[in-house]
Structures are given as C-alpha cells and as structure tokens.
Design goal:
40 helices, Monooxygenase, 977 residues, 5-stranded antiparallel β-sheet, F-box protein, metal-binding, JmjC_dom, Jelly Rolls, 9-stranded mixed β-sheet, alpha+beta, disordered N terminus, globular
Length: 977
Amino acid sequence: MDEPHAQSLGPRDRRTDALGDLSVLPDETVCVILEYLTPRDVARFACVSSVMYILCNEEPLWMSLCLKSLNGPLQYKGSWKKTALEHLPSEYEEPCRKPLYFDGFNSLFLYRRLYRSNTTLNGFSFDKGTVERKEDLSLEEFYHQYEGKKPVLVTGLVDTWPARHAWTTDQLLLNYGDTAFRISQKSAQKILMKFKDYVSYMKLQHDEDPLYIFDDKFGEVAPGLLKDYSVPHLFREDFFDVLDRDERPPFRWLIIGPERSGASWHIDPALTSAWNTLLCGRKRWALYPPGRVPLGVTVHVNDEDGDVNVETPSSLQWWLDFYPLLADEDKPIECTQLPGETIFVPSGWWHCVLNLETTIAVTQNFVNSKNFEFVCLDMAPGYQHKGVCRAGLLAFGEGSFEDADKNIFSGEDDYSCSELTRKEKRVRIQKARDDPNFEGTITSASKRYNMWKQGFSYDINFLAMFLDKERDHYNSPWSLGNCMGQREMREWLSRLWVGKPGMRELIWKGACLALNADKWLERLTEICAFHDLPSPTDDDRLPVGTGSNPVYLMENHVIKIFVEGGLEDSLYGIGTELEFYNLLHKVNSPLKNHIPEVLASGILYLENGSYTVVPWDGKGIPDVIATSNLVPERCKVDGYPFGVWNKKQIEYRKAGMSIHESSSSARCAGIWPYIVTKRCKGKIFAQLRDGLSWEETLSLASFLGEKLHNLHLLPLPPLDYSIFSDFEQHLELTHSNCHMEAVPNNSNIQVEWEIFIKTLMKKRKGVTSRLSKWGDPIPNTLIEKVDEYIPDDFANLLNIFEGENNLKKVWKPCSWIHTDIMDDNIHMESSSVTLCLSENAEYAGLVDDASNGHDDVLKGKSWCPSYILDFSDLSIGDPILDLIPIYLDIFRGDPNLLTHFLKSYKLPFRRMSVCESVEGGDKFGRLSYLTMCYCILHDENILGAIFGIWKELRTAKSWEEVELTVWGELNNYRGFP
C-alpha cells in the first residue's frame, strides 16, 4: 500500500539528499558560488550528485566561466560550455554523450532564467508611447521645449546619412567581417570579437542577457564608419570638442545587439546628455526623470570617493518581473524606437533599453551649455550630491529623510555630515517580487516617491546645496567612476576658459562647483594684496595647467598655492623646495640659472572669518604652524624644519598606505603655504610637442641630460642624525608590532640608503592589490607574477660592497631627485628670447598659457629649452628614478632620445664592474631590472603609461619581456668620462 501511495504523491524531492549541507542555500546562491570555481572544478562538481549535475550544466554558468578565462578574441562554438572547453587542454574535453535528465527537482529560479533565455519579444512592441515624436525639429524649438527638460524622438535628422542604408548586418559583414569590436558584458574582462564571429554568435545564441557590441573605439578600428554619419544639428554644441580625440573621455559608441540584449537601467556618465540613432531593427525604451530610481534598482554611493555603483536586473528581466507590478502612475515614459529615429536623453535621466530584434545604432554623449554645470557638479568631490542627483531625496537614510525634508523646504541649506553620512550611502529599492515583505516595501517606496514628487528638483542650485563644503578638489579622493581624471578635468576647464571666452560666466560657475574656483580666487586676491601685486584680471581668475596645486598666471608673476595631500604634505613640499633653492645659490650651482626665480613665499590662513598672510622662507616655524600637530619633534628652529630629511620620514610613514590612510592632514583646513615666482614669456613643452622639429627635440634631450647631471651632483643638506635615531626607533616599534616582519635588516648600510630601502619594502608589501586596483591596461597574467619578479630584499639592487670597519656601502650616493620631470614641467622659449635671458638669467619664470598674449612667438621661431619647473615633489633617492618620467612622458619611449639624453648626462648609474657574487644571479646586474622594479613600485601608475606606449606588451608572458623591451637600452650604458 505504501508504494502506490508514494507514487501517487509524485517523485520525491531529491534536492536535500543531492546537495547535503548546501541544501540550506537557495539555488541562486549556489549558482553564484559555482562561478568562482575553475572550469575543471565545475566539471568535477557535476559528478557529485544529480542536482549538482543540473546546476553545473547551466549555460549562464559556463558563459561566466568562459568570459573570465578568455585570453584573446572570442569565438562562440554553439554553446558556452563548448566554447569554454575549447580553450582548455584536450584532457578536459567531455566525451560526446547524451545529457542526463532527473525528476524530483524543481527550481523557480532556474525556470525563470530558462524562460528568459528562450522567450521571443514579438509582443513587446507598441504603437503609441509616451515619448513625444517630432519631425524636422528646429534648434530653437529643441532648446526651448526639450533640452534639459524631457526626452524626444526625432525623425528626419539622418535621412541623408550613408549609414541609413549601409549599416545592415550583411553590408557590415562584407566590409568589416574581420574587424574586432569591443563587446559589452558584466565581466570586468575586456572582450573582443571579430564581426563575422559576432554575427555567427547572434544566430546561434539563446542567452537571457546576450553579448552585444558596445564599442567606443569603433572610429579607430573602422574609421570608414565615421564617414557614414554626422552629428545631427541639434546636438553639435559639445564642450568636449576643445580636447584632442585621445584626451577626451569616451563619448561615441557603435551598438549592435540581438533580440533580448540591451542596456539595463543607468544614468549616462557624468550626467552628460545623449542622442541615439537607430539604423536597423527596433528598440524599446523606458525612462524616468532625474531622482526617480526605477523599481528593482539599487544605487550605492561610496562616502570616501563618491564612486557610484548601480545594481540592476537585466533589461529583459526588469520588463518581465518588475514592469507588470507598476501602477499606471508609476510606469516609466516609454516608446518603441524605429529605424531612422533619433532619441534624445537629457542629463540625469534614468533609461533602460531592450532590443526587440537585431539592432544597429550609433550614440554619442555630449556636454553643452544646458548640462555643463551638472557635469561639473558630478565630478566635484564628495558623495551626497551624487546620491541626490541620481536618487533624489531617496539618497537620505531612513532616519534622516524626514529631517532633511524639513530642512530643505524650510529654506535651510546647511547639511552637516552627522545628519547624512553613513559608511556607504545606499539607496535601496525592493529586490525580487517573491520577497515576503515585497508589498510593504512597495508601499514605503510609494510614500517616498510622493515626497520626491513634492520636493526634489533637478535644478543646479538645489543640487549644489548637497555638496560637501569640507571637501576640496585638490586634496580629496577622486572617484574612479568619473569620466576623466583630476588633471584632465583641470586641463579641460582651462581650455574652455581660453577657447570659449564668450561663455566665461557659465564656465566660471562650473569651475566653482568642480574646483571651488571662487574660494581659491579669494585666497589669490589676499596674497596679491599683501605683496602689492596687481589684482587678478578676468583672464587670471581660473587656475591653469594640470598640476596638483592651484597655479595662477599673472602679468609678470606666477603664484602657486600648496594644497595637494593636505597641510602636512604642503608644508614639506614648499619647505623642501625652499631649502633646495637656498642650497643652489649657496653652492653657486649652474642649475640655478635654469630654475624659476623665487620672489616671495609665505603662509595664508583663515581665522575668525578673515584671511592673514605671513611671509615664510622655509626656515623656522611660523606661529600658525607651531600650534598644529605637524611640527617634527626634533628640529632646529633656525634651519629647515620641513626640509628634505624630515620629508623622507614622512615618505616612509606613508609608503604603502591608501590615499585615504595617508591624507590624515587633508582636513587641517584653513592654512595654505604659497610661493611667488617670476613669469617669463614662453611656452611649456606640452604646448609645443607636436610642432617641434627633430633637431629641437634632440636639443631638449641634451638639455635635460645636462641639467640632470647638475642636479644629481648637487650636495645634500647636512644630515641631522638625531632625526634618524627617531626613525630607527620607529622601525623597531614597527618590527615589534609584526607589521614589517618580511623586511630584512640592513642596519650596516648608510642611514640615507636604509630609509630608502625600507620605504621600498613597505611599498612591496601590497603591490599585487595595488596593481589589481589600477587594472587595465596592466595584464592580469603579469599581476599574478609580480611577487616572484621583484626581489625580497631591495638592498640586492643597490650594488652594495664592504667598506671600512665592516660598514656596508652603496657604491653610488643618494642624490637630489626631481621625481616629476614631465612635459608640463619643461619650459621652452623662442631663440630670440632665449638669447636675451641667457645674458640676464634672473628673469627666469614659469609657464605661459597658449592664449596669454605671446602667440606671436609660436610662428617662424625655433624653440630652445630654458627652465625646469615645479620642484615641490623633490626627494632624495636613486638618481635613475628621474629617468622614468623623462623617458615615458617626454620622450614617449623613443630610444634614440634616451641615448641622446645619456650622452649629455655622463654619470654612471652603477659601478663599471658589476659584482658577480650578488645573490639572485644576472638580473641584479641589469640596470633594466632595477628600473623596472622602480616602475612597479612607483606611487603613480607608471605601468599604465608603459602598456599604453608599448601596446604589444599587453600580451607579454613575463615581466622580463616587458623589462627588456622598455629599459633594455640601459644595459649598454656605463656612463661617460
């Protein structure tokens, strides 16, 4: 009787027995865990039980495994499992056999995924959407009714494009079949596919979220495509056009995708606006206005650097699982885009796109006068404003939401961090509909959406109220999610200021949001008044250049305010620079004729709402600094307390720290050291590079060799050994805390080299994680091998020999090093001006901008190098470190220029006869190995520059290959008599 009864109940659920202890986990979690395994381990797990066999044969799992392990262009083999196994040794291939089937197992999660993978979208299109359609829209009508206000579908803009008829799958296959395009997918791995292979994939695939071409470099790999279209007249104003193509952030994309592919919910980078023109197929669009987070989407904003991360279901999953739950009043603005139509998406609008069939489109993002301030706001430091721009008042935590609402609408705009700060700001909207609290969550969200409707305004003045007033562009962490870096941001604003003088009022507003330009202008004005300098003119009020500190070009002066890294770093920057200048004149070094003349220096500080200026030449300790906690414990008041030897200890203390750990003094606000130098009438090398002749460039290489020769022979300031007794105590304390257990003890080495080696060892400790964080273009295969490449003890690199009294000595002395000789720190003058200045060197000055009244010297002149600029990053160390920025940035990896430089440099980097007994073999005798190790441990992403110049090294199999390609020329150099 039991057996027939059991059969009548159906098959027994096999999940518990088949998964054992793992049965407590939902299927979704088990599938996520499996993605962390290797293909070989997944194959083994498939043999464990029937349920594990089912989970381990899921196509989405093998898709993830394949894309993670891919090395080279992708060729789809009909299934992701076959494609993944194709890249493995033959021993891992499965024998051909029929798949197994099991009863007694049900999974709603797997069923939904299977349904999404095989559903067709014929019924997803609709004729009437809620996005307005316009034909032959005029520019005036566009600006008045739509720009910055709402999306619109426009017809008739692209009827004359060749792409209107040429961009079909068959035609593109004929013309670009062997061209490899970039593929968009959720993995961080960059995927390339030849177009013919991608077309084959589109025909064979049954993925729920298919790969699609989303290539911002299509103009480089297929330049003919750029001739097939032009920017519609409505969108031609673009503030990024002042940048060269290789300088501007990604802005245009070729988009090709099959049915079910698309872009999940997002807001375009940096709050830019966008246009998207469809050439083939149909797309379904859903859009929400700024601040209204779509159902099912979660926004994360990191409170340290403002990095924004959006968690969202795929576009297909959202339309299937979330869209049906929306009340009519909560549904998005929608439309179906047809071939030949162009959709405009305003700044800050959420949008989601689903391809209803195979589609081909082109899109571009742009910055114009309507969204410029929003773009600048989004790149300002902090996180509160970024959350509010994307999520409206939902960006506030549950406890602070009502209080914030009262403050905002009662006219209060002073938001303290205590009210709004959480470790990670999260805007949480409900997840899956099978959540037991789903209905209550929707009710809560609806209440908050009502609050959004009442109070949120996508207005620049409203959004600017949420800026963190304590954070500053120059010394706050920069979000990796920003579309450009800090230096690039400053360069962009400088070029706009020069190139668009008629729009300076708008550009100034943006600079105030992004750079706090108005605050720095206040401080500049105070410095000018104290030193009886002319007040800044309209041309002078924006900081210039790409440097890490605000620099202002006045008529005859240059003023630099030190802010990078906070007050402590600023004091050691200017203190070391002033000590260096004093030493140059004391020993009458010829280098002093090629360094800007210092006219004044001091400290500006804010106290009780008013500014005060006190002169300071680097000697002694001003009262305003004495009250801080930044004064070295043992320092001579009549010397340079913030000079280079104390700076070396700071470098050691901060070595290996993250930017957040090392910027402890960044919040010591209200005190700013500054320096005033004489300005000359020339150009920096960065402005002249492309127009110089080969002879002029060779002259620059010789000039740098001569000046570095003088720099590296300059005597060091007296060494106060009491400073380093404190350092030794710190080392002992560090060892006792087991933080530096791997650092060898080389206490018999000269003390200046000892601190150098210890600093390198601290940087070595976290090298793998740091390179991983920097990521592309550094190859992952090399990151995995970096620990075995660099030495365990950096003393082995320094050519140490046994001296008197058993004291170990490094053959070469420590020397002054500039550390930052790049293309914006080399000053050049036309030949006539150079002759004048060579007779009267005290008129040396700093950089001149390309539009400040000296353009007449650009034409018909030969250019000669004259000055080296910006010594605020001065340090003491191995002189070969100065070669790294010169070779990579100024010479762009040209070995001929390097050879020419070395002929003028004439100083050896190590002993002529290399000691053969050095532990570690031949590599320790190679200058190329020493230099490559310095590149790997550099504070800046030097490796990114290397793999950017030598792109062929992105497939290198070893660090030795990179080392010899980049630095091999050094192994032939022995110095010159």
